[in-house]
Amino acid sequence: MKKVNINAWMWFFVLIVYCVFMIHLIVSNRILLFIHPKMIKYIAFTIIVFIILISRQIIQLNNIKNSSNKLDLSFLIFMLPVILTVIVNPNQLNAKTAVNKGINIPSVSQQLEVPDETEKSEELVQPIQVEVGYNTQEGKDFLDVIEGISNDFENVLGTKVEISGFIFLQEDFNEGQFVISRYMMNCCAADVQLIGVLCKYSDDYPLVANEWIKISGIVDQIMYKGSSDEEEIEMAQIIVSEVEGIIIPDDQYVYPY
Amino acid sequence: MTNLTQKLDGFTIIFTSIILEAIPFVLIGAIVSSFIQLFVSEKTIQSLLPKNKYVAIIGASFMGIIFPVCECAIIPIMRRLVKKGVPLDVAITFMLSVPILNPIVLLSTYYAFTGQPSMVLYRGILGAFGAIIIGLIVGRLNHRNVLKISATNFEPSCCTNHNHEEHLDQEEHHHECTQDTVHIRIGVNQTKRKILSSIIDHTSHEFFEVGRFLIIGAFLSALMQTLLPRTTLMAIGKGPINSIIVLMLLAFVLSICSEADAFIARTFVGQFTQGSIVAFLIFGPMLDIKNMIMLSATFKAKFLLKLVTVITIVCFLLALMVNIIIG
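^ Those are the sequences you sent over. The predicted structure of the assembly is below.
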């Protein structure tokens, strides 16, 4: 029987799988679940280099000189992320992850306090004004509200807003209270931060964590007490008049720059 | 959705996203490494390196300014340089400093800390200084044969007339092969083609070597991020010493690119000490789960352990110094 260079074939196979995987992610827009749109050009570059590597690898396939019959297990490692992504088929970075990696604080109060810090707001504002480009219209609306609350609260107070995001619930919330939130991404899903606004809805609506909704309401303010040892702080709260369930958007993140 | 599937979703997204974010840069590193392999001889490197060790190390720490790559791309390049005979201490300083003292990284730090430009200075100066100190300490350690020999069975053969053993033993062999043998035997066009295919083969091999470790590193990082609630980490404390430990651990676990980490660091202002934020900014690019695993492809475990210890202690002390001076 003709000897086969099994490891050369495996590498050939891995490169093709990666190429197809990356092209699929870009074409289906699923890539946005993982990385910032600005990174897509680097993935395109990777695809081109991989195609070159694949064409060269074809020549190696029949080269049995240095081949070993032992299959290198590294190929399994290479296949792992692709297999996992295909099988698990994740579609949302959910609030469960938020509790673990989310924003840098134990309670929502501080998290919501974040936009109130003037210094912090500078960071939020400046890049947003420079480059709105990467955000979808919904994402931009969301950032606009956050930005308005953090910089220019007096002007935003009492105005009507309409934003979409997912529901984030915390144990110590009152009935009908929730945070409408989105993840803000700088580079990839490993660096996302949760941002959001406290909301209050009086009507009966089944508030399920992670569900995507679109709300409209009036910006109000309340005194909020995070954990027992903290002082009450003034915070923005949207008095929601309408809630509508929506499907998870293709582009669920917001981008500060 | 049950708790478990949610966690699995989060894990998969973070795992794959780290890989997708890093692959292009590891690939760029592999390509640069191939060029060094083919076009820069050991002789050239020896003649370019300053004779004085201290000058060489300090020079290496400033390479980032003209060599703007991040921490993923630098690893294949450092590997190649060490194999080409660059002294270990110089190569280590180079590897640790470039991802910090890099215009893109410093600029993103500047944007992230808009109201606090001094953070850019702390990061740049302490990062480079730390890298020099670590290089010097590593140079003093006893380190013979720190490099791992390629453990894989798979090695894309470059020139078909050479065998596997020769390839490992003789680092210069490509050089000779493409420059001399081929040059004389076949025409110039053929030579160009041969060089090109050598570059492609090397890139392919280098990517294979480092890529699998990138995947293991990304796996561990995603696992830690999914299973270890940040609140647990924060519970260690916010004092001048504890805060440094917390943020160094966080930088290690998160494995985020040095071009994006400043935006995360920004959220700690006011809650954590200044020194601990500096620690996050200089330790992260030098060492994290992903990088450590990638380095294990190059260095033997014993040396890697020493290196990790030295990096951790130096960064910790620098951060402590900031806390003591600024308060």
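Chain A touches chain B through 70 residues (CB under 8 Å). Residues 6-88 of chain A form one domain.

Shout if you want it in another format.
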